[in-house]
Amino acid sequence: MSLYHETAEFLTSSSASGGSLKSRIFGKKDLKSQPAQVYALAIESSKWSAILKEVIERTDLLRLERKITPVLSVLLVHDLLLAKRGIAIPATHGLRTSVERHKARLTAEFTKSRIRRKLSTVEALKAHIEAGLGNTTDSSQILHPRWVRINTLKTTLEEQLESTFAGLERALTVDAVRKRGSKHIFIDHNIPNLVAVSSTTDLSKTEAYKSGAIIFQDKASCFPAYLLDPRSEDDDIIDSCAAPGNKTTHLAAILQSRQPDPNGGSQKIHAFERNYGRADTLKRMVSLAGSDRITTIHAGEDFLKAKPEASTYKKVTSLLLDPSCSGSGIVGRDDMPELHLPVPKNNTPLPKDSKNKKQTKVPDPTKETRKRKREDFNEDLDVMVDDDGMVTAVDTVDELNARLTALSKFQLELLIHAFKFPSARRITYSTCSIHAQENEQVVLQALKSSIAKEQGWRLLKRADQIRGLKEWPVRGDIEAAEGDAEVAEACIRANKGDEHGTMGFFLAGFVRDSNSVEDIGAQFLRDEHGHMVRDMMGFPVRAEPMGADSTSSPMDEAAPEAAVEVEADEEEEEEEWGGIEDDQIPETKDEAIGVPMPTKNKQPKVNAASKHQHNPQKKRADLASLSQKKKKRKK
Ligand SMILES: C[S@@+](CC[C@H](N)C(=O)[O-])C[C@H]1O[C@@H](n2cnc3c(N)ncnc32)[C@H](O)[C@@H]1O
């Protein structure tokens, strides 16, 4: 019996409570069942869940057998109809008998489901499921894309296109990957090193996924680290609410990509996670992604208790705030299989021939306790599952408002606390909520706070945002921004279910007037990636001050032209040396958004496994050595 209950528990608990489904199952120490058995049951039942939902609903099983929860019904009916040995509990066990007594009707409905799909045999139905076509009767249904971030701490986009994604055809729009069974890959235009494939493409068994070279992360969830735009000349960063760690590791990857020396840089990311269980997940994620060196994990520490004036944080120049929120923008748990749960027909009387007359009264689930376990909720209910996995029944607008008020109070407190860090110059605030109360309203209140005014914090305007996000078309809600068009423009939104294929998300950036702290970074020239332009010696090139007639590097010997000269030189020499990849010498718009520029063969199709395994760290070292070579040659 524990097999079914334990599997149900994993399928119904939040992924935020411990990483991917697989890692949560295999990482659980006190599991009574075999982890492999639990994992297989969870995955297989989920694959079949749309069909099982139909079968269970049509047989009215949940109303007839009240002991069985929706998720348990999917697992038990799966094994009854599809497992070689049937339900894996003793024949006399109550759960087994309550399903088996409906075997004839369940089998008949299962056959009807197959026929509705115009499949002549069970084998044909199995093949249909394996092709990822099972969870719908409508094969044209638009799916949420599977967004995959290429973790540049471990690999490159080019390397992944040639290995993990070899054989997928390059798509020009995200639409192409939203079809079941699509064999396309879309390279994102806004976020570098982000791709999308069909959610029916199983990447979880790939080496790249297992080794942390690719990370499943919704496009919108990649916005904050990219907007924060950490640079090598900046100092430390705080990620205030870090687990499971997607944004922490994204920050680390951006930071590392901007270090001139792959092993250099003393910058740190302070990753706070107040929940110990989630902090463990964060540790695993940070280690898998290869960002341990850069990240200091503050496990079990509340960011609100961190003292801004403490010497540990005196070098903190940027903060990423991604606090707990209502989670109303979440499309589906990213690492979870798609699970369709049957809904009991609450209000229909039992059939006259029912043998279970005592069980006819199904309690109104909305009258049950306010907080319930995930497996208890039913799709007819209004429940709010926040992104920490907490489920709250919200039957009325007042209840929803009360929950949102509590969340927004905490979110504002967090933002105000972040404003107090003495060296901070940049802050991002994000939620995966669609509610203005947690988004634009928090931003407006934060801007009105006395600390924001005293410390000179203002919104990062759209015009000043990094290119991919400046170009992102979905902006804040003008009404929610109290009619202030500039505030609405500065805010970034992503809508669940629109043509961009993202989750619902909100993001705003705050910057502090540079006269309030010394803005060293602003004194230097940058390219369109935000990378500092360096001279031949590797020193940053100073930006030309307004009205000044000359520029100088810290060594007073290289003007911006020198940097241009180096780039031109490197291009000439590329063929001869052959060791630099495009991503080290970004020159074109396409490269800036992570599109590899095939130099010889511009095939849209991604194929041919790489002969040459790229090592981004080696490439950076190679680049440094090339600069040295050039320098010597010039002398
Ligand atoms: C929305 S999740 C963060 C997701 C994460 N940024 C990511 O992208 O993977 C919010 C997390 O912040 C943690 N948290 C909430 N309040 C906190 C606080 N005051 N200090 C530290 N962690 C906090 C929660 O436990 C939860 O794990």
Plain-language structure description:
The protein contains 22 helices and 15 strands. The chain is an alpha/beta fold. The protein has 3 domains: 1-140, no CATH class; 142-216 and 574-635, Sun protein, domain 3 (Alpha-Beta Plaits, 2-Layer Sandwich), CATH 3.30.70.1170; 222-329 and 400-517, Rossmann fold. Residues 347-383, 515-521 and 545-624 have low confidence and may be disordered.
Name some characteristics of this structure:
635 residues, alpha/beta, Alpha-Beta Plaits, Rossmann fold, 3 domains, 8-stranded mixed sheet, 5-stranded mixed sheet, 22 helices, binds S-adenosylmethionine, S-adenosyl-L-methionine-dependent methyltransferase, RNA binding
Give the gist of this structure:
InterPro entries: MeTrfase_RsmB-F_NOP2_cat, MeTrfase_RsmB-F_NOP2_dom, NSUN5_7_fdxn-like, NSUN5_RCM1_N, RCMT, SAM-dependent_MTases_sf. By secondary structure, the protein is an alpha/beta fold.
Write the layout of secondary structure elements.
Elements: H1 2-12, H2 21-27, H3 35-47, H4 49-59, H5 61-64, H6 70-82, H7 94-100, H8 103-116, H9 122-133, E1 146-150, H10 157-162, E2 169-171, E3 184-187, E4 194-197, H11 207-210, E5 214-216, H12 223-228, E6 236-239, H13 246-257, E7 269-273, H14 276-288, E8 295-299, E9 316-321, E10 383-385, E11 391-393, H15 397-419, E12 426-431, H16 440-448, H17 450-455, E13 457-459, H18 467-470, H19 485-490, E14 492-494, E15 505-512, H20 560-577, H21 589-592, H22 616-634
Parallel strand pairs: 2-3, 6-7, 6-9, 7-8, 9-12
Antiparallel strand pairs: 1-4, 1-5, 3-4, 10-11, 12-15, 13-15, 14-15
Bound molecules: S-adenosylmethionine.
Organism: Glarea lozoyensis (strain ATCC 20868 / MF5171)
Pfam families: Methyltr_RsmB-F (PF01189), NSUN5_fdxn-like (PF21148), NSUN5_N (PF21153)
GO molecular function: RNA binding; RNA methyltransferase activity
